[in-house]
Amino acid sequence: MLLHGVTMSASAWDDVAPLLADDFDLIVPTAVGHRGGPPRSGHTTIERLVDVTEQLLDERGLSSVHVAGNSLGGWMAIELARRGRARSVCALSPAGFWTPGTHDNTGATNVLIRTKRLAELSRVLAPIVTWPAFARKLMLRDIAVHGDRLSQSQTLAIVQDVVECSAAADLLGTTESVARMDILPCPITLVWAEKDRLFPPSVNGVIAQQRIPGAQYVVLPGVGHVPMIDDPARCAEVIRSTVDMAA
Predict the structure, then answer these.
(1) Per-residue pLDDT tens digits for 187-200
(2) Would the pTM count as exceeding 0.85?
(3) Which of 19, 49, 102, 239 is 20–30 Å from 3 (CA)?
């Protein structure tokens, strides 16, 4: 199961999924309140997103699966493991590693809120703005080092995802956080992006190691917060390595 980050959609995995499809039956859902996902009802919380993901597993008759997730999806993957629904977890730059009861203190929330507002304001101009490769790199600089490697259509899809994410305000304002996990229910790999501008490894990565001390910790060089953009092959490799740990 591949889980995407906040304001994104299942398409975040489009370049990684083909690298895994020969060996795994993939489940790549879009979260509640995100474009293409189930509609939200009431206040959207991380707990609610994990509930719905569990229901998806139940509907498919699956007691547990290998889970990889990025950002919000990495947090969800960890919570699925806590509930006994994961055989292994590969969490890429997972969210939730900040002081309990507060927003994160890295400025990530403000950056994402600003990004959503800009996307809404520039929606009409997006087809023009995203045409040059250097503009795509600049537009995606908060989540990727090499945003220019995406096509214009992929970049426009990201903009559309951000604009149509109805759960953004609830999720970006959450005071939930990842609780300490001293005993691992399954192999867990915490994968941090070396160039992560939202959750830098020197801050959130350190907290993650303290909260889940038994997890394997890996830093991917030269990639940003959404490493599937910068290096899909390396992402697929680290996911496979985590799955192998559960064998």
Answers:
(1) 999 999 999 999 99
(2) yes
(3) 102
